[in-house]
Amino acid sequence: MSILRTRGGLLAILVAAALVIVIGLAAAGAFAGCQQAAKKAGRPSQAVSASRNGAIAAVTAKAFARNVHPRVADTWGEIRGREFVMAALQQYGLAPTLQEFIAGGGGRRVHSANVVVVKPGASPKQLVVGAHYDSVATGEGYVDNATGVGLLIELAARLKAVTTPYTVVFVAFGAEERGALGSRHFVKAMSDDERRATIGMIDLDAPAGDGDTVYVTSLPDSPGWLREVALTAADQLGLPLASGNVGGGGTPGPAAGISDDLPFALAGIPTATFTAADTEPTEDGESAPAAGAGRLWHSRNDTVAYVERRYPGRVRTQLGQLSRLLETVLTSKLEKQP
């Protein structure tokens, strides 16, 4: 289905136009907390590397959540969601493609699509960086998962003109809330050569806002070396990052379910999932995800207004830290651990 033929097309075009202005301001440095002086307007892609880490991600996440919700799979809301993502990526001179699919979910067939951008690297070996753009019907889907989408878009823009050791495939997955259908299709559609070339998958699933600590986790059956690489890089950069207990979808806390990391792990691809959650002390003096982890996910409080009022600055800070960390990881030669 052509996005220009959908009933949501006009709204999506208006949203995209607003996004061009907002992202342009962020890229030029006109974002709260950014010390970079605003320069004469040019293409946002020309200024993004000069913006503070996390500025693009934070402003994009807010615009996405406020303007496009709910984004339930196989609805006009989800269609408008991927139109928004494609418009944002195109604004940075990137060339996203749609990977449409029809799959089973919740007892019926679901029509959705992944938005894919391939950033060629010095090696044909590749890293997949993903975040789902759909949401549940409740709230605005700000924490889950506009924050992940904003970070995905910022990283793609930052790395556009940067030499990377590996090819980086950025994917905004559809229908994650229906059982990770988008990532299941993506993995299923990979050729044997592509699977062998994929050294890891980074999942951005509610990476900011839900709790005071950002966790990186891997599924039990997935090699944990990519998680350890992230922890080592965070330590070297002096950034806070924890590794906690793993839930059903690679995220900490009892509310965790199936996430986009699972199909990759089942295919033998190492995963590292980034999720924010509150912490509580353990008997050995360390910290672990608190029992209330995931309290904003799928709730009416998962809105920009509530999160920014209750936890002012948290999303921006965490997205800034993760942007710096992942930019470092994605531009570094990684040593695979056993």
Description:
With 338 residues, this protein is of the alpha/beta class. The protein has one domain (53-86, 93-330): Aminopeptidase. Helix content is 38%, strand content 18%. It is built from eleven helices and nine strands. The protein has helices at 9-27, 44-47, 55-67, 76-91, 142-159, 181-189, 192-197, 225-237, 261-266, 304-310, 314-330, and strands at residues 97-105, 108-119, 126-132, 167-173, 198-204, 213-217, 271-277, 279-281, 287-289. The protein has a seven-stranded mixed β-sheet, with helices on both faces. It has a two-stranded antiparallel sheet with strand order 8-9. Strand 3, helix 5 (142-159) and strand 4 form a beta-alpha-beta unit. Helix 1 packs antiparallel against helix 3 (55-67), helix 5 packs parallel to helix 11 and helix 8 crosses helix 11. The chain is globular and about 40 Å long.
Series of H and E elements: HHHHEEEHEHHEEHHEEEHH
The side-by-side strand order for the widest beta sheet comes to 1-2-4-3-5-7-6
**Helix count?**
11
- Helix content range: 25-40%
- Largest sheet entry: 7 strands, mixed
| CATH level 3 topology | Aminopeptidase
The assigned CATH architecture is: 3-Layer(aba) Sandwich
Please describe the topology of this protein.
Elements: H1 9-27, H2 44-47, H3 55-67, H4 76-91, E1 97-105, E2 108-119, E3 126-132, H5 142-159, E4 167-173, H6 181-189, H7 192-197, E5 198-204, E6 213-217, H8 225-237, H9 261-266, E7 271-277, E8 279-281, E9 287-289, H10 304-310, H11 314-330
Parallel strand pairs: 3-4, 3-5, 5-7
Antiparallel strand pairs: 1-2, 2-4, 6-7, 8-9
Helix pairs in contact: 1-3, 1-4, 3-5, 5-11, 8-11
